[in-house]
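Request: Not sure, any thoughts?
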Amino acid sequence: MATTSDFAALVLSRVPEVPVGEFRPLAHDDPDGDCIEFFLTGEYFAERVDALLTDYRGMESGEIVGSQIKGATKFLQRVLAENPGSASRFVMAS
């Protein structure tokens, strides 16, 4: 079964390389809070979408530069159940 850490790693694997010394995109898996957060920039403001999703938007651009997904375990289980075969895209937990 794919874990929330695996999902966080997958998100980061899709982000282009960043020069040394600049902000590095990051993803944070919080198993105690059952959520995943990822950030593409260090300057953002939060915009709550609903009880499970918060978008982080760039201060100047207003574009989405990150998100917090609550209920990450259930979210991943649903994605995998609705998309058979998608598990092969995740690094499987040993």
Summary: The beta strands are 26-30, 35-39, 44-48, 53-58, 64-70.
